[in-house]
Amino acid sequence: MEVTAVPGSNVPVPRRAHRLPWILAIGLLAIVVSLMVRNSSWARERRLKQMDLEELALAIHDAPNDPLTFLYYGSALMEAKNYTAAENAFQRAVDLDPRSARARIGLGSAQLRAGKVPEARDTFEVAVRQAPKDPAAHFGLAQAYYQMGSPRRALPSLQKLTELQPNSALAWYQLGKAYGDARQADQALLALEKATQVDPKLSIAWRDLGQLYRHYSRIPEAEAAFTRAIQLQKEDPVAYYWLGQLYSEMADDPKTRGKAEQCFLAALARDPKMAEGYYELGRLYERAGNYRAAIPRYRKSVELDPSNDKPLYHLGRCLVQVGERAEGQKLMKASQELRAARFEVDNLENRLRNDPNNRQLHLRLGRVYRRYGNFEGALQQYDLYQRLGPRDPAIDKEAVAYIKELQKQGLLPR
């Protein structure tokens, strides 16, 4: 073994001893790197991903200033459908790290689920500015506008979504649906056709495309699209229902009526609570002069959807035709009153979509809901009226009296 002398000494030292400080230094460096990796964001995320809701609840107490922990806690609360608590968790993550677009997207999603749509819109607008290439931010903003009743304002976000995800059939489908709801049928047709090209197995895109072909009176293409949707998703009641509508609008011959009848029956077999299916089946029988077959279908439609005046009116007509004139005329008169009520409600609801902070409109809508038996809607509108301004003692008394009335009727617990 080679030896060397320590300077200033005649004692020989093995040459390997000179390597010891370097070995120690490398070992310390490895330990430091290991600790850095363990404490890195990547490593923390990996640990947090493996935690359940209870473990994350404990983790936020151990790390009250860690935005990442609150981010994962909020996500776990979303999965548990505890949207209010999730909103609080995401808000804490945003407060701790205002630059985190992920936290804002989570916050916006929680606000949407909690029904705080204007707040969600504002949150997603900030997220889009922070992360302009994040599809989730654009989709969230589009959802917010949609829920506010503004599909036109959702379009730019969905257009951006298709730019970011050109191979996503769902992105093209959502864009086509928004164009359709915004009454831009030409653009809707192009987007839905693109969706079916990107993914020929997306049944919902074929189904909606069939409706557009029907709108343009492209009957063979509409029939083919609905048929394709049914082939891809045999349990979809809406596809059968729309195909039945298509047949019922075609040539009024026994063969075509038979096809329509089979489609409506197939739709109702898959969704026995589809009020529209019973109504359309009743219309089919009524047009064929089979009033007694139409009557039970109309009754079922009215039972499932008492707010729709159309089946009520046709039920009255059919009863008159079979000799039950008194009941039939009574029902036709009731349908006219119901139509007027629907017009009043629709008018107020549309006005509130454009002016959501108008207190008086909320109060008027609450009273209209109350008049027509929508007690949940009425109480919600009373509450919104009070939240949007100084508390009104007179309206408080009105709401309390209404609640007592509902409790007396057994519609609310005492």
What is the compact description of this entry?
The protein has about 425 residues and is an all-alpha fold.
Word description of this protein:
- The chain contains 22 helices and 2 strands.
- By secondary structure, it is an all-alpha fold.
- It has a two-stranded antiparallel sheet.
- Helix 8 (135-147) packs antiparallel against helix 9 (151-164).
- It starts with a strand and ends in a 6-residue tail after the last helix.
- Mean pLDDT is 88; it is low at 1-9 and 32-38.
Helical content, roughly? over 70%
What strand line-up does the widest sheet have?
Answer: 1-2
Q: Count the strands? A: 2
Q: What portion of residues belong to β-strands? A: under 5%
The main β sheet shows up as: 2 strands, antiparallel
Distance between the termini: 96 Å
Instruction: Give me the secondary-structure category.
Output: mainly alpha
Defining key terms:
single chain, 22 helices, globular, 414 residues
Topology:
Elements: E1 3-5, E2 12-14, H1 20-38, H2 41-49, H3 53-62, H4 67-79, H5 83-96, H6 101-113, H7 117-130, H8 135-147, H9 151-164, H10 169-181, H11 185-198, H12 203-215, H13 219-232, H14 237-249, H15 254-270, H16 275-287, H17 291-304, H18 309-321, H19 325-354, H20 359-371, H21 375-387, H22 393-408
Antiparallel strand pairs: 1-2
Helix pairs in contact: 3-4, 4-5, 4-6, 5-6, 6-7, 6-8, 7-8, 8-9, 9-10, 10-11, 10-12, 11-12, 12-13, 12-14, 13-14, 14-15, 15-16, 16-17, 16-18, 17-18, 18-19, 19-20, 20-21, 21-22
